[in-house]
Amino acid sequence: MLTTDPFSQREELSPKAIKSLRTTSRWVRFFGVLSFISSLFSIIGISGAITTIIKESEDASVLYALLAIVLLLVIVAASLYISFVLFDYGATTSRFAKTTDYNHLGKAFKRQLTYWRWIGILVTVIFAFYLLSFVFTLALTARL
Amino acid sequence: METMNLLDDNQDQENALITGEMVNDLHRTSKWLRYLGIVGMLVCGLLALAMFIGLFVMSGINDRGVYPDNVFYLSILFIMIFCVGAGFLSLLVFRYGNNLKKYVLQREIQFLEEAIENNKNIWLILGVLTIINFFLFLLIGIVSVEGS
């Protein structure tokens, strides 16, 4: 943990860096809005999928249908949260660029960490799924 | 005297622009960024390799007249362009993380400014590519509607 006094920095960021942060904030907010819109579209798609699941599920597979619905809802909630984090990251960066109040930069750094951590976890989970499916395929091929 | 120094230190911490907590956040972010950069470059490299192998295999099939299709070569070309673009973005993400790490370790503001520049380039390139992609899809949609 690097939270001790010697790491405090008094040096200010140059106007060029602040200008870069302003440009970054615009694009990040743009992606936040875009991500929010795509999350809303995914809600429409997922609602359709849930309806189909409910219609086609027999009594025995109700549990699986419920599990699928919960999983889909979790995906929607996660994507909405990521959109919010991204937009807030852009908004706090923009506030810093306007006011040069370093408290806003601190909040932006926190949002940035949350965003990249989520992306990192997502990438790891996707990789784990690919690896698992690869191993299963290999095992099935070996059995045949 | 010692008490005075401690008071000065406390005042310094209060007046600090980039606090220890902020540096700690940057340190943790840099780890994720470097990880994502490496994974991105690895995936792009593997995808490019797969495309080369696919091109080689399919060229052999094409010679025998089994799969004569220009769409295939066009797809390979597009995937190759994607690999180069995504690989470059992954490199930028890695460099961004690396500059943050350098700043955390050496405490020189120039590294943080370089990192901020890297960050700007990442979002700028992503944004421009997204807009180009959007208009490309729109164009394809219009052309296909006109064609039908």
Q: What is the structure about, briefly put?
A:
Chain A is an all-alpha fold and 144 residues long. Chain A is built from 3 helices and no strands.
Notable characteristics:
heterodimer; A: 144 residues; mainly alpha; 3 helices; elongated; B: mainly alpha; 4 helices
Q: How are the secondary structure elements laid out?
A:
The complex is a heterodimer of chains A (144) and B (148).
Chain A: H1 15-56, H2 62-99, H3 102-143
Helix pairs in contact in A: 1-2, 2-3
Chain B: H1 2-15, H2 20-63, H3 70-106, H4 109-147
Helix pairs in contact in B: 2-3, 3-4
Structural class of chain A: mainly alpha
**Beta-strand residue fraction of chain A:** under 5%
Unreliable residue stretches of chain A: 1-5
What general outline of chain A do the C-alpha atoms trace?
Answer: elongated
Mean pLDDT score of chain A: 86
Q: How many H/I helical runs of chain B?
A: 4
What is the largest interface, and how many residues per chain?
A-B, 37 and 37 residues
What proportion of the residues of chain B form beta strands (DSSP E)?
Answer: under 5%
Query: What is the element string of chain A, with H for helices and E for strands?
Result: HHH
Could you name the ranges of chain B where pLDDT drops below 50 across 5 or more consecutive residues?
6-11
Order of helices and strands of chain B: HHHH
Percentage of residues in helical conformation of chain B: over 70%
Cα-atom radius of gyration of chain B: 24 Å
Mean pLDDT over the full residue set of chain B: 84
As a percent range, the share of helical residues of chain A equals over 70%
- Helix/strand-derived category of chain B reads mainly alpha
| Quaternary structure annotation | heterodimer
Termini separation of chain B: 87 Å
